[in-house]
Amino acid sequence: MYRGGLVIALITALAAPARAAEIELKNDGWSDGQPVNVQAGFKPGDIGAARFTPPTGGPFPVTKIQFLFAGGTSTETVTVRVWADTGSTSPGSQLYTNDYAVTGADDALQEIDLTGEGILVSGPFRVGFLFTHSAPPSLTTDLDGISAPDNFIFDVNTGLWFAASSTGVTGDFVLRAFVDDGAAPPVPDAGVPGPDANGPGGPDSGAGDCTSNGDCAVGEYCNEFGACSFDCREDNDCGTDMACNSLGMCVAAEGDGGGCGCRTGERGGGGAALLLLAVVLLAIRRRSGA
Length: 290
Fold this sequence. Notes:
- This protein folds into 2 domains: 8-183 and 274-284, Jelly Rolls, CATH 2.60.120; 203-252, no CATH class.
- The chain is built from no helices and 19 strands.
- The strands form 4 sheets. Strands 1, 2, 3, 5, 8, 9, 11 and 14 form an 8-stranded antiparallel sheet that branches. The chain has a 7-stranded antiparallel sheet with strand order 13-12-4-10-6-7-19, with no helix packed on it.
- It has 290 residues and is an all-beta fold.
């Protein structure tokens, strides 16, 4: 388990059914009423994330995410981030970031609606939760084993990404993404606004046809959709211990020292419930360029 200790919460939830055109992507094997592990070792600046692979084709709009956030009942601000995924331990370019106020619950599968946010994926992508508080409440993992290549932890002490299995996590994050396979818009061409002014291909992203970073303006890079884009303009646009490089990409800041904090700290909280709830999230909007 991440940072030692074990908290098991018996959770049951009623998830909203997927729309006909939606495809659910998940690594976990959890189902209503089964116990989970509450990963209560996260501290401010840490990230828990999962990699998802959509069907061949696309691009596909990401419509929503679902997750269990348990082990406490306080309301905490978490930063949800979506990245393209290159298949390595570290994620690729950032596609989306936003802050949400989430109330912990041991009896609810929670949902964030991303419809209309302009998040387009045509290959593997990663969804992560950046913590601004010391868990719990926290992300949870199932008890039926782990898909080692698809679960990750960013440790703020080292400024490095790790495979979650290397930190002692033995289950998959109960974190799911949904994509729409029936309404994927075409990749915007040069000068044509995308579905979101700040999203991939939107006018604020400097979109245009490209095959390499050299085809883009200074401060931009050629993203996986063949469009010039940027994630940041200054270090403050990136997360804790991250910096904005010359291509407008958020990368780990240089000079982060200290030992690995991946196995320290204590767990707490947790509980059992058999309620069927629908939890509404209050979004605290904070967009950055995609």
